[in-house]
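Researcher: If only I could read backbone structure tokens as easily as an amino acid sequence. Walk me, if you will, through where the backbone shape changes along the chain. I have put the entry right below:
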Amino acid sequence: MKRRRRKPDYYYLKAKREGYRSRAIYKLEQIDRKYRVFDGVKRVLDLCCAPGGWLQYSLKRVGKDGVVVGVDIVDISPLPGVVFIKGDITDDSTLRKIMDACPEKYDLILSDCSPNVSGVWCVDHARQVFLAQRSLEIARSVLRVGGNFVVKVFQGDMFEDFLKNVKELFSFVKPYKPEASRKRSAEIYIIAKRFRNP
């Protein structure tokens, strides 16, 4: 059976028109506008960064004296000002590269990770929460005290336990679905501010 192609939506067309790499940039823009996660931020780590829309927004927000590091298992087209690490975030060697890329701890960690979707919801949900949990573990290692964390999670029966894990580490935690997220999507973002590593 032929797979139906998704019709380009408003944010997809807007991203093309404005020269951004993906429609996802507007999700981050809306998160930042509402929760001001980039305020005072100079060092950003973007996990699962391909194709680079969040990197583009991060560059704009941190300015020329900022540091933006992107990590993904697939290559991206180079972006001037971005340090790119090709690696799997579940691999400890990637964490070492992340630490080496920035001598100081990061002010903000972003994670927009998604697994390769199998079509079996319980499997896809578990895989995605695993990536979110791994992103949280990386944050515990490289985020400065007081720093911020934004992570995508698929809603499902594992969501509340993961949310509880985030609340143990941050003073402010709020689930939020940006307007730019597709209405039918199960994704939701957890906005976590003021890291307090126990």
User: Anything to note?
Assistant: The first helix runs from residue 10 to 18.
